[in-house]
Specification:
Elements: E1 2-7, E2 12-20, H1 23-28, E3 34-37, E4 50-57, H2 64-81, E5 86-89, E6 96-106, H3 108-121, E7 125-126, E8 138-139, E9 153-154, H4 159-168, H5 172-185, H6 195-198, H7 224-230, E10 239-240, E11 246-247, H8 257-264, H9 273-286, H10 291-299, H11 307-310, E12 311-313, E13 320-322, H12 325-344, H13 358-373, H14 376-379, H15 384-401, E14 406-408, H16 410-417, H17 421-433, E15 438-442, E16 449-452, H18 455-462, H19 498-512, H20 524-536, H21 543-550, H22 554-566, E17 570-573, E18 577-580, H23 585-591, H24 597-622, H25 626-631, H26 664-677
Antiparallel strand pairs: 1-2, 1-3, 3-8, 4-6, 4-7, 5-6, 5-9, 10-11, 12-13, 14-16, 15-16, 17-18
Helix pairs in contact: 3-5, 8-9, 9-12, 10-12, 13-15, 13-18, 15-17, 15-19, 16-17, 16-24, 24-26
Length: 678
C-alpha cells in the first residue's frame, strides 16, 4: 500500500501518496492515511488485471445526498448481477466508496469500460482510480484514516460481513455482465448525443447554490438526484389516474426481465432492501401498472424485492418486522411518484420492449433456420436426434438469457429434452465438432459446459440472401428445399419475435421430452422425430409425404405409425394415409406404460445435484485449518440434519469407503431413504 508522509512545515499530512509501506508499518502510525492497490502488479507491468474494484463517489463538489444515491444505485446493479459488495462512508466530506473483488482478475480494458460508463451514469463517480494503465490505481480501504480527520466507516455491514463479501468476490463473467448493463443504459440517458461531455461539463451542485437547484417544471418536489441524473424535463408524457397518481400512458404489459429478476430474487436480512425496492417500483411503472395495482402487488408480500415497503429493520439487529399499512402506503406512494418521474425522463429503450436483445434474437433465429435448412435427410440419421435436441436447448437458453454465451448442464439439458444426461453430453460434443456450437471454458465449480454460436457460422448466416424481399426474417421459415422440415410450426414456419421463437422451441422440446418417447418405450426419439411432423400437420398425411418430411425410409415410417396407432394417437393405414386423433401424448404414455419416466429422471437428477453439493461442501470443510474444523464440527453421514429445500446433507460428513475415497452411491442411497421417509 502507499501512505501519506507528514509535512513538518505545515504540520499536516501531505497531499500525495508517495511512500510504499506494509500493513504493519501503516498500523504503527496512528491516523496515517493509506491507499491499497487495485491490481496485484504495478510499475513495470503494462495494464495488469484488476482484482479489486473500488468505486469512489465524490461529495466534495456534489451534495452528500447525491453521492449516497449514486452509491445505492450502483448497489442495485450489483445486487441484480449477484455480486457481493461493501459500502463505506469515506470521510468527513460524506463521500461514498463501494468495494467488490474479482479474485480471478479482469482485464484493465474492461475495467476502463466500466469506469467510463459509470462516470456517465453517476455524476459523483470518480473514474481515475480505475483508469490507471500501470497498476498504480489505488483507493483508501474501509477503516483508513482521512487526511482531514475521521475514518472510512463501513456502511450497513460489520467487519466480518465485509471480509466475507470481499473474499467471495465476483466472477469475471459477472463483472462483464455488469459492465454491459451500464453500457446498455448510455443511449437512453438525457442528451445522449453529448454523453461524452455530459458528466464532464456538469457543474458542481453546491448546497447554497440556489440557481442549480431549480425544481423540475413537472412533478415538483423532486430530489436533486432525480433532476441531476435524469434531467429537468420529461421526455415522455405522464397521465394521472382518478386518485391523482402518476402513470405512463398505454395498456398494461408484461414485466421486463430485469424487473422480474429484481422482484423475485430473495434478499438476506442484512442486505439493503431499499436499493432493490426502487428498481422494482420502476419495473412496475415501465409495465404500465397503475398506482393501485402496484400497491396491491407490493402489499401482497409475495415479492422479496419489495420487502422494504412491507417490513422495517429492527434497531440493533438484522431482523425485520412488519410495517403498518399506513406507513407502507406512504413509502410506496412517494417511491411511485419518483419512479414515474424518472421513467418519464428516460427515453423508451430496450427495457421497455419485449426483446431486450434484438441482435441475439436475430442470431438465434438464423441459427435455428440453418438447422432446418439441413433437411430431414440430415436429421434422420442415427444419433442426430439428440444433436438437434441439444441445439434446440442451447438456442432456448440464449433467448432466455438474452445473450449468446450460455452455460449448459447435462442434467438440466436431459430434463428439458428427454435424453439421458450422458447422451446430452455426447450430443453437445457432436454439435461442437460439427461446427454448430462453439465451446468456451467450463464452469470450474459445477462442470457445466459454456457454449456460444461460432462467429464464422453467424457471419455466413447473417450475410446470406433473405428468403423474401419483405422485412428481414428473424424467425423460423420453411426450409428452402420446399419442405417444412423438423422445425416447421403449425403454419409452416414462424416469423419474427423473440416470444414466438421461444414458444416454438419450447413446444418442440416438450414434445421430445414426452414420456411416450422415453428410453424403454417402443418408439424412442426417432418416433419423436416423426411425431413432430404429425403434430404440425393439418388433416391427412400420406406415406409419401411422411417419408419426404421425416427423411426416414418406408419401413421405419410404417413402424412408427403402427406404434402411434396402437397408442391411440392416429388412425389410418399406409394406403390411405394417417390422421391424428384427439388423444394426447400423456394419455398415450399411460397406455404404453411409460408414464412417469420424466419425473423419475428429474428426481434422480435432483439427488445427483444434492450429492454433488454435499461432496463439494465436504471438500471445503476438509480444507479448513484444524482450529476452524473444531468450531464447525460435522455430524456423521448417517445422521439426518435439518432439511433445507429437501436437502438433508447440510452439516454432515460425506460418506466414504474404508480406503477413504468418496462413496457417491452411498450418499445417494441415504438421501433417497430420507426423502422417502419424509
Amino acid at each position: 500500500m502507499r501512505a501519506l508522509a507528514w509535512d513538518e512545515k505545515t504540520g499536516s499530512w501531505s497531499t500525495y501518496y508517495e511512500e510504499e509501506i506494509t500493513v504493519d508499518q501503516a498500523a504503527a502510525v496512528a491516523g496515517r492515511p493509506v491507499v491499497v492497490y487495485l491490481t496485484p502488479k504495478k510499475g513495470r507491468h503494462t495494464d495488469p488485471p484488476f482484482t479489486r474494484i473500488g468505486c469512489d463517489f465524490d461529495a466534495k463538489h456534489h451534495s452528500i445526498a447525491l453521492a449516497a444515491n449514486d452509491a445505492h444505485l450502483l448497489g442495485a446493479y450489483l445486487d441484480a448481477a449477484g455480486i457481493p459488495y461493501v459500502r463505506a462512508i469515506s470521510g468527513p466530506s460524506g463521500g461514498r466508496h463501494v468495494w467488490f473483488a474479482v479474485p480471478a482478475g479482469v482485464p484493465g480494458e474492461l475495467v476502463r469500460r466500466f469506469a467510463h460508463a459509470a462516470n456517465l451514469i453517476f455524476p459523483t463517480f470518480d473514474p481515475l482510480p480505475l483508469s490507471n494503465l500501470s497498476g498504480y490505481g489505488a483507493l483508501r480501504p474501509p477503516g483508513s484514516p482521512h487526511r482531514d480527520g475521521g475514518h472510512s466507516v463501513l456502511d450497513g455491514v460489520t467487519v466480518d460481513e465485509a471480509i466475507d463479501r470481499l473474499k467471495a468476490g465476483a466472477t469475471p463473467t459477472q463483472f462483464e455482465m455488469l459492465t454491459q448493463w451500464l453500457e446498455e443504459e448510455l443511449p437512453f440517458l438525457p442528451q445522449a448525443e453529448n454523453e461524452h461531455t455530459r458528466a464532464r461539463d456538469r457543474r458542481p451542485c453546491a448546497e447554497n447554490d440556489h440557481e442549480s437547484q431549480k425544481p423540475a417544471p413537472s412533478g415538483g418536489g423532486l430530489p436533486a438526484s432525480v433532476v441531476d441524473v435524469h434531467g429537468a424535463d420529461r421526455v415522455r408524457p405522464l397521465e394521472t389516474d382518478e386518485n391523482g397518481h402518476l402513470k405512463l400512458p398505454g395498456q398494461r404489459r408484461a414485466l421486463d426481465e430485469r424487473a422480474r429478476a429484481a422482484l423475485h430474487t430473495p434478499l438476506e436480512p442484512h442486505q439493503q432492501h431499499s436499493d432493490r425496492m426502487f428498481s422494482c417500483v420502476r419495473g412496475l411503472v415501465r409495465a404500465r401498472f397503475s398506482h393501485d395495482e402496484g400497491w396491491k402487488t407490493a402489499w401482497s408480500g409475495m415479492y422479496p424485492g419489495l420487502a422494504y415497503i412491507t417490513t422495517e429493520r429492527v434497531a440493533g439487529s438484522t431482523k425485520r418486522r412488519q410495517r403498518s399499512e399506513a406507513d407502507a402506503q406512504k413509502i410506496f406512494t412517494r417511491q411511485w411518484m419518483l419512479a414515474a418521474e424518472v421513467e418519464a425522463r428516460r427515453p423508451e429503450g430496450h427495457a421497455e420492449t419485449a426483446d431486450p436483445a434484438p441482435e441475439v434474437t436475430m442470431a438465434v433465429g438464423v441459427f435455428l433456420e440453418f438447422l432446418s435448412d439441413l433437411g430431414p435427410a440430415y436429421w434422420s440419421q442415427k444419433g442426430r436426434q439428440s444433436h438437434l435436441a441439444v441445439a434446440f436447448f442451447a438456442g432456448l437458453q440464449m433467448l432466455a438469457a438474452a445473450r449468446l454465451d450460455v452455460s449448459l448442464g447435462s442434467r438440466r439439458c436431459s430434463d428439458a429434452t428427454g435424453f439421458s444426461h450422458e447422451t446430452c453430453n455426447v450430443a453437445l460434443t457432436r454439435a461442437v465438432d460439427a461446427g454448430h456450437l462453439e465451446e468456451l471454458d467450463r464452469d470450474p465449480k459445477y462442470g457445466n459446459r459454456r457454449v456460444t454460436l461460432p462467429q464464422s457460422l453467424l457471419g455466413e448466416l447473417l450475410h446470406r440472401p433473405a428468403v423474401t424481399s419483405e422485412a428481414p426474417d428473424t424467425g423460423l421459415t420453411q426450409a428452402r428445399n420446399g419442405r417444412r422440415g423438423v422445425l416447421g410450426g403449425p403454419s409452416g414456419g414462424i416469423e419474427g419475435s423473440r416470444s414466438a421463437l421461444r414458444d416454438h422451441v419450447e413446444w418442440l422440446l416438450e414434445l421430445l421430452a414426452s414420456d411416450l418417447f422415453a428410453h424403454g418405450g417402443r418408439l424412442g426419439h426417432h418416433g419423436a422425430h416423426t411425431w413432430m411432423i404429425m403434430e404440425a400437420a393439418q388433416g391427412l398425411l400420406s406415406l409419401e409425404r411422411l417419408i419426404q418430411e421425416t427423411g426416414f425410409g418406408k419401413r421405419t415410417v410404417i413402424r412408427h405409425m403402427r406404434e402411434f396407432s396402437r397408442a391411440g394417437l392416429v388412425t389410418g393405414d399406409p394406403s390411405a394415409g394417417w390422421t391424428r386423433t384427439g388423444k394426447t401424448l400423456d394419455e398415450a404414455a399411460q397406455r404404453c406404460s411409460t408414464a412417469g419416466t420424466r419425473e423419475a429422471r428429474a428426481a434422480r437428477h435432483m439427488i445427483d445435484r444434492i450429492v454433488w453439493r454435499w461432496f463439494q461442501d465436504d471438500v471445503e470443510w476438509l480444507r479448513l485449518p484444524k482450529e476452524e474444523k473444531k468450531k464447525a464440527r460435522r455430524a456423521p453421514a448417517e445422521q439426518t440434519c435439518i432439511k433445507v429445500d429437501g436437502d438433508t446433507s447440510g452439516g454432515r460428513r460425506f460418506p466414504r469407503r474404508t480406503c477413504g475415497s468418496a462413496d457417491h452411491s452411498e450418499a445417494a442411497r441415504l438421501l433417497v431413504e430420507e426423502l422417502i421417509g419424509a
